[in-house]
């Protein structure tokens, strides 16, 4: 039984499409590999410089010890037992202001956003009476160290300079803290602190970090204002700014958080860890990492900002490849429609070459975007692919007019693809309208075509 030539060709084109999908999958794997290498570059910078910084404090901490005498059951022997405990008081009001100066560092081809944050912190306590210890045993004897003001950080390697002052008088800043759960940070001892008097502590920090900066609202009222020359911030965490301005010259953001809206104070006193600010390499992803094994469940509330790249070449290339099959299918439909309407026969090998040219566009885009701005790389890759396909289509379809029309259609498809990439929130509706328009055009042009008669006789060139 002789097969219908139309269905034979469709079967061959299906095999060609599978081969093209394999090529696209390989290019997609290459994009994934490059993204992982970018992450490794970021981790290398974090290991050598400092990682994302989360900050909590200032807090008042006092280390105490209670000792008491215990008699044996027969009353003949006595032994001394003791316990260590810590008293902690969060500020009544916490005010943080400062600037974030971005610093771009490179590891080979890969760019990593780091920053230098200059923070001015002021904490006020209306009363510090909670630092007065109380014995739990009738014969308990208390011994306490002087209270200390503590600022805890994710990565102390990022501290470039630190100043702590009490009521305008400078204090001696020391590493670590008296509290075992707040070892990563710095502290200053406050001798002669009177429980009934209010206290104001100021701190100036020059802090280096990578990509993200987070602040824990560990106070009854927290007020934070940050500004930077980076024009593409991403605000994350549990609290978004109440006000923000973003422009080409940078951003300014203002947060206000009440203890009624956050459990940060209680969680900090319960010993929960600082949030680990981790994120994907894409521009819109920052999250608070889940606790690692051994950590207490959950972490502190945080307000955070990330310095993101709005056009990440690997994210954009990955998104472009996801549209690759649709892109190639539309091109094949165009070629097939031209073949049906003009009677010009196109060999499956020619379909394969056209598909390979379209696939290599994505590889060319990936390689160029590592060295050039994404838009420039896209224009070069799209222009090269459209030029090659125009001259090939002129020979394939039998004329420069047809080749030019085909190349113009490819250029329009590249333009539509870039719109899909740059308009993430409206990409679905744009793609749906595009596909509907193409299907409508195909149905209109083939509405009078005798599909049963296509395979009855062989067409001649």
Describe the structure.
Pfam families: CreD. This is Cell envelope integrity protein CreD. The chain crosses the membrane at residues 323-342, 349-368, 374-393, 400-421, 427-445. The structure is a single chain. The relative contact order is 0.12. It is elongated and about 110 Å long. It has eight helices and 19 strands. The protein folds into two domains: 5-37 and 314-445, no CATH class; 52-310, no CATH class. The chain is of the alpha+beta class and 461 residues long. Strands 1, 2, 5, 6, 9, 10, 12, 14 and 19 form a nine-stranded mixed beta sheet that branches. The chain has helices spanning 5-48, 264-269, 313-322, 324-342, 348-369, 374-397, 400-422, 427-445, and strands spanning 53-71, 78-89, 93-107, 110-125, 141-144, 148-153, 159-166, 169-171, 174-175, 185-189, 199-210, 212-215, 221-228, 233-237, 243-247, 250-258, 277-278, 287-288, 303-307.
Order of helices and strands: HEEEEEEEEEEEEEEEEHEEEHHHHHH
Helix content: 25-40%
Q: Beta fraction of the residues?
A: 25-35%
User: How many domains in all?
Assistant: 2
- Computed over alpha carbons, the radius of gyration is 33 Å
Low-confidence sequence ranges = 280-297, 457-461
Most strands sheet? 9 strands, mixed
Number of strands: 19
Shape: elongated
> What's the tally of helices?
8
What class, by secondary structure content?
Answer: alpha+beta
Keywords: Membrane, Transmembrane, Transmembrane helix
Pfam families: CreD (PF06123)
Organism: Pelomonas cellulosilytica
Protein name: Cell envelope integrity protein CreD
